Amino acid sequence: MPISDDFKELKDAIYRQVTLLIQGYGATTNQCSNDPYIIGFLVGMSVAIIIKYADERCQSRIESATAHNLILQALEEALGSRSIPAMQTFLQEQALQYQIGRERGLKAGSVMLGLSHYDDDSEVKRIKEFITNSNLCNDNTLVGGVFIADYFYGYVRDKYSSLNLD
């Protein structure tokens, strides 16, 4: 399904974020497209970007089919066409790993983008308090970056330790 011009900017933003995460530690697209946790994380981050986009443009929500299509096209561009069937398999056969990755990606993305969905989350509060007590710049990007470092890069490092991540 083609994306309307109204949403091309949004799809490109999702693509850039996915590409940045993948390239951040040198994970290969093959590793990413075959890992249910990583695909779930990228989908969760993408959902956060879509929510932020809708909030900024005073749209109460973006249709589910449109959001689904935006995410699929961005992932396909970033990871190749094999990511789509793999994602469908993960939803059926490895749903738990995919779901954990998706929830963590949504949390990291939501915090990073300043969405209020996780303001009462104890883990978010603890990290914000640590950053404040450390006299660091306490902004959402830094707090979200902590979650990305732990939830995404930590996972990639631990699972694919043969990669040169240092």
Kindly describe this structure.
The protein has 166 residues and is mainly alpha-helical. The chain is 74% helix and 0% strand. The chain contains 8 helices and no strands. The longest helix has 21 residues, at 36-56. The model has no long low-confidence stretch (mean pLDDT 81).
Describe the SSE topology.
Layout: H1 5-24, H2 29-33, H3 36-56, H4 64-79, H5 83-93, H6 95-112, H7 122-133, H8 140-159
Provide a brief overview of the structure.
By secondary structure, the chain is an all-alpha fold. Helices cover 74% and strands 0% of the residues. The chain is built from 8 helices and no strands.
List keywords for this structure.
globular; mainly alpha; 8 helices; 0% strand; 74% helix; 166 residues; single chain
Mean pLDDT: 81
The structural class is: mainly alpha
H/E series, N to C?
Answer: HHHHHHHH
N- to C-terminal separation?
40 Å
Number of strands: 0
Largest sheet: none
Please count the helical segments: 8
Helix content: over 70%
Q: Which regions have little confidence, pLDDT < 50, spanning 5+ residues? A: none
Radius of gyration: 16 Å
Question: How much of the residues is beta strand, in percent?
Answer: under 5%
Using the alpha-carbon principal axes, give the shape: globular
